[in-house]
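User: structure tokens for this one?
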Amino acid sequence: MSLTVSDRLLERARRGEVPEDDFVACVRESLPYAWEVISGVAARSRETGDGFADNRVPPPDETSRGQLLRALASDAMRGALERHFGVRLAFQNCHRVAAFVPDAPGHAERYAAFVSPRGQLLNQSPDLVDC
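Assistant:
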């Protein structure tokens, strides 16, 4: 399972829409490693002058790697995290998460370069073949 959902939250979902704050809290509690990495790059992206920060540290284990993959592969989770932190997220390989501040100067160009085929190819390493 991607998320550990409380009975109360599941019942709310069955009855109708779930407040996004409740969903974000579920993601934070279910995927603590992913939350740590994403919240970290989001905070650092706001502190830098160029509105960009990334994580280049591989996860410590497969459980952590799986958390990042699940959080960023889900449109619902990724979108909620982007709205919560006010950033645009991007992902390369199995661990390179980047956050871009949408209103930062040069955002569009920086984001386009990161998610381009060239950006992906330049981020390759023999160490990452099986990540």
